[in-house]
Amino acid sequence: MSADVFKPGSVPAVRRGDALDVSGLPSYGFAHRSLMWWGNAGMMTIEGVAFAFMIVIYFYLRSRANAWPDDGRPPDLLFGNLNLAIILASAWPNRRAQRTAVDRDVRTVRRWLYVCSAFGIALCAVRWFEFQHLNVRWDDGAYGSVVWVLLGFHTFNLVTDVADTFVLTAVTYVDPLEGKRFVDIAENCGYWYFVVLSWLPIYAVIYFGARL
Amino acid sequence: MGASDTFPSRALEPQREGSRTPRGERLLDGAAPGTPAAARLERTWTDKPGVFGFLCANGHKTIGLRFIVTALAFFGAAGVMGGLMRHQLATANSHLLGPDFYDQLFTMHGTTMMFLFAVPVMQGIALWLVPLMIGTRNTAFPRMSACAYWLYLFGGLLLFGAFLFNTGPDAGWFAYVPLAGPQHGIGKRADVWNMLITYSEAMGLMVAVDIATTILKLRAPGMTLREMPLFVWASLVTSVMIIFAMPMVMLAANLVQFDRMLGTHFFNPAEGGDPLLWQHLFWFFGHPEVYFIFVPALGFVSAIIPTFARRPMFGHDAIVLSLIATGFLAFGLWVHHMFATNLPDLGKSFFTAMSFSIAIPTALQIFCWIATIAGGRLVLRTPFLFVLGFFFVLLIGGLTGIMLASVPLDLQVHDTYFVVAHLHYVLIGGAVFPLFAAIYYWFPKITGRLLSERLGRWQFWLFFVGVNLTFFPMHVLGLAGMPRRVYTYGPETGWGALSFLSAAGQVINDISMFVFLFNVARSLLKGERAGANPWGAGTLEWSVASPPPAANFLALPVVASREPLWAPAAEVTRVVGLSAEIREGLTTSVIDARPDTRYAYPRPEIWPFVAALAVTVWLIWSVWSVPAFAWGLIPPAIAFIAWYWPDRREAMEEVTWEKAP
Fold first, then answer.
1. Contact (CB<8Å) B264/A13
2. Backbone φ and ψ of B494, nearest 5°
3. For an engineered disulfide with B118, which of A92, A138, A209, B293 has Cβ 3.0 to 4.6 Å away?
């Protein structure tokens, strides 16, 4: 076994006789050094698979339909575009929150988390109007069903992550605040990117799958 | 330090010296047994006593064992249902059971075996074994697995509760629409099935994420991916497969539920839906499902063979690659369950070829096992007998699999007893025989006592004869045209003699299971003490006492080879400097397992149980009420927030051990 095997990520583990002393290692780490990152990656994969298959189902059903949408009225673009603009813009405060979480600057993190929460509330409000302007009901036919469920699943993700952001904002007031909570904040921001990025194909399918 | 000549080596035993390090007067792990530090470590890792402590527990051995015992109980229940069906069909024109009850029986039998027995038992064994095999103290997300267990238990109780009230699902274990859809699946029977799927797949996904993260991030220093035991590899491949396949069936079951409750039209052809869509969605999950059961079983076999052949596995890397290849190919076979539908012929030919191709990695593994056995000094004990049974029974199932993979033959025997024979040979040969091998092999580690060899041989031979007697005649019955899922048949069909033989085989299986239960009970009471390593095996779980202490290892091991207990002592053997006062572990890098950070594991707490209870209320409520889909989510949300909310006392303690990266 080469000695090189024990080269660590940052602080070295120290060899003492036949033992490896790890007491000097950090007690948490960011990004892929943290277990939370891996758990989060698992969650995103699971939900990503579900989203991907909802899109597959959308086109499967479309390939079997004579008319798509049934009555020729696609969803109104206004609120979808608005949502797209806001969600893309939300990546900025999210990025700031993630960065300042890594710096463990609790006051600045909190400020950015408030901004993120405000974006979240705005997105949920716009999403409400999006549903109103789909121009179809879920029980009108297969087209309506798949559009509602696709948008519904993304809304579920949106709402849960906004709720997580609220909770984490509140947690920043807890004393003592363990270092691992900053990892959680950074990972919650990582998950928000998933909410943003998954919206791009879903937006494209819902608004242009019914037009092209 | 020179190489040790002891076998197995003492390499992993802690040294008899204090382990105070520069962290002052705090109690650290790695101290000799009997010292205050060692006692404190054990106390830190012991779950609380009493009913409340029982509900809070999150140790991987506790949760893993709960999964195993619960799954075996469901195995027994589903076995009784199988026995009832055999009894019903033993003679022509039998009216012991009515057709409606019979429909529920075969649906419950299949559903229970697949969702409540086979997958959970494999995941339970992985939860129990993986941390011990890779040299850590708990899984990465122990509360999540604890919550998964409660979901699993509540889901199973819901299914059986519904069955007792004559509301057991009755559309077969794959619940095809339109039979399970809103028009034909009347009552709440199909809803119960959909709920169960949500439960069991949520459970499976949570455990899979936990196991995969544990394997990737919590291995002992030095245990690179290449040095990882084959069972751990099998568990990793299975977990990744679950993460990619299970969302599918959860999604699909929910879509059916939306059709039933909310009036959507995913599977309603009158409104643009398509019933065949269900078959695609189900089997895209359903075929990999077989491999969630089979791949861990391959891992058992690969763990057991080197021990009883007394040599390291021949072709270790080839086996790893085969496991990964099996994982990928498993996703390309689903259409062979749908050859009787109107799909394009070219597509069917493609899936025939894909189905044949999965024999390649399996054959590769079998050749490696044969080479290992041939090159070793064989010790024939009960676990190994079951491995030999696995070879024989699975081989027959594999051969009929090749027959069924060809479209013309499949069309001929579609929905006949030939398929029933095939799937039982594959699942019993591919999973149940290795499972019993695993139970006999690891039982001494779990309980500290060996199972009786003599009773084990009796059980093996009874089961081997019973399985073949029950299921082999079904091949002939299927070729003779007997359809599956009929509750009775007329004497003119000529199916009576073979059906009777099959029922007799089932009785032998039952006797074999009683021998097993007796063996377990006897062993728990007065079985031979096992000691740490009764089989002289080489992997880490055998380096600790049987049953293992609450903290697993007094000091986490440092690993330098695939069979650390067979290797000469290395220069560096153990990790020191982790807390004995809080539950602390070590994360390592993904590929090379270099020490990276210390990690504070979550403590036992009640919230995973409360969350599972809240989710249960939501799911059951949503079967009867549409608004419950939304409002029912509020209690689980509260429970999950409470689960996450920092506990002040705990935080105070952890902060003192903290060091920023």
1. no
2. 75, 15
3. B293
Chain centre to alpha carbon of residue B150: 16
- From the list B539, B588, B622, B600, the residue with the least C-alpha distance to B302 is B539
Share of residues in chain B with pLDDT > 70 (%)? 96
What is the ipTM, given to two decimal places? 0.94
Match 């007690």 to its residue by tokens: A27
Task: Please indicate if any CB of chain A lies within 8 Å of the CB of B22.
Answer: yes
* Closest approach of B571 to chain A, Cα-based (Å): 6
> What is the Cα–Cα distance from A65 to A210, expressed in whole angstroms?
12
pTM of the model: 0.94
B167–A contact, CB cutoff 8 A:
no
Q: Tell if the CB–CB gap between A23 and B21 is shorter than 8 Å.
A: yes
Coil, helix or strand at residue A136: coil
**Nearest CB to B247; choose among A46, A143, A171:** A46
Q: Tell me whether residues A35 and B578 touch, CB distance under 8 A.
A: no
- For domain B59-489+498-517, the CATH superfamily is Cytochrome c oxidase-like, subunit I domain (1.20.210.10)
Q: Is the pLDDT of residue B118 over 70?
A: yes
Structural domain count, chain A = 1
Domain assignments of chain B as residue spans, ordered by start: 1-38+569-600, 59-489+498-517, 607-656
**B residues 55-94 closer than 8 Å to A (CB):** none
How does DSSP assign B612-652, residue by residue?
HHHHHHHHHHHHH-STHHHHTTHHHHHHHHHHHSPPHHHHH
Which region, left, alpha or beta, applies to residue A148 given φ > 0 means left and ψ of -120 to 50 means alpha?
Answer: alpha
